Fold this sequence. Notes:
Elements lengths: L1 H8 L6 E7 L10 H19 L2 H16 L9 E6 L4 E6 L6 E5 L5 H8 L3 E7 L3 E8 L2 E5 L6 E2 L4 H6 L4 H25 L4 E4 L2 H10 L20 H32 L3 E2 L2 H9 L3 E7 L6 E4 L2 E4 L14 H11 L3 E5 L10 E5 L2
Parallel strand pairs: 5-9, 11-14
Antiparallel strand pairs: 1-2, 1-4, 2-3, 5-6, 6-7, 6-8, 10-15, 11-15, 12-13
Helix pairs in contact: 2-3
Amino acid sequence: METKLKELKNVRAENCVTIILNTHRTLPDNEKDAIQLKNLIKEAEIKFLAVCQQKTAEKLTAKTHELAATINHRHNLESLILFVNENVAEFVRLPIPVEDRVVVGNRFAVRDLIRGLHNQTNYYVLVLNKDEARLIEASIDKVVKEYGFPFPFQNQISQTSFKAEPSDAGRIRNLTSEFFNQVDKVVNKVHKDHPLPILISTDEQNYHDYMRIADKPTVIFPEFLSRSRQTEADHAIVGDAWQIVQKLTQQQNNDRKVDLKMAVSTNKFLSDTTEIFHAIKHGRVQTLFVEENLFQPAVIMNDTVVYVSEDTNNTTEMIDDIYDELIDLNMDFGGNVVFLPKESLAKFNGFAAMTRY
């Protein structure tokens, strides 16, 4: 997803449409997703007609319908995003809820892709011991699915060696590390296609041994679900796992709010949208803080950000979501973004910036 984000974020062209909608994983609910997508494409067509010639609008609408026809909604996750312009026609599924909307501008709306990369309400549980590894995908406290082949991943290299050299602790340790290294490689193949944070369920020694060989230790939670659970049902494992993930997520959110509070006390803080816009252009903004479901149409007049209502007649000058625009611009200058739950930034009207100086 990181590669896809970089590709789409760097697109600059006229009439880029981003169609964003919540979807469903299971029948019969996912049968309604195609209908909702069709309705949003109709909304996109109206927006096209407002900003470009009819022939161009018809061409882009047809291209969007063609892309939609390739989507198998039985494979949907929590949300779906379509990206279409004259040269691009792609879709991405995400494991996070979104706000249904259509955005047309000179770049794609990638905010939800960024959120997806930072998402921690969907995660993997790697159930690990010295003999095998299971991999479960979870959403909050519910099982999304337990992965099949090559999982459960069996230790094929240690059986004979362990029996032949039961007293050689160093040799056994090396064989375990070799097995964990094999597990890590197959886990990373899954993670590459569907990046989510990983919680390990194992005993303390195995956790530390695995972290020593892990190719991507930063995607693994800094705590683990203790004891061997190889024979437990997936829903029981995930129910306990969520208690840890929820605690770590809340702790992370609190740490981020402390960072913002420190920025206020050291005068490295901005909350006015126009001031933030100017600071980003000068490379001064380190981190943007934004509530997850906050959206605001705007126009930029005389170098000033002016909010407009959602029912304002669409023009080429109107930005469907100024926060998405500023997030994208700030990333171009090497900054980052923190997404927080609704009402977390009530004192700042949902949006703030921490500056470098």
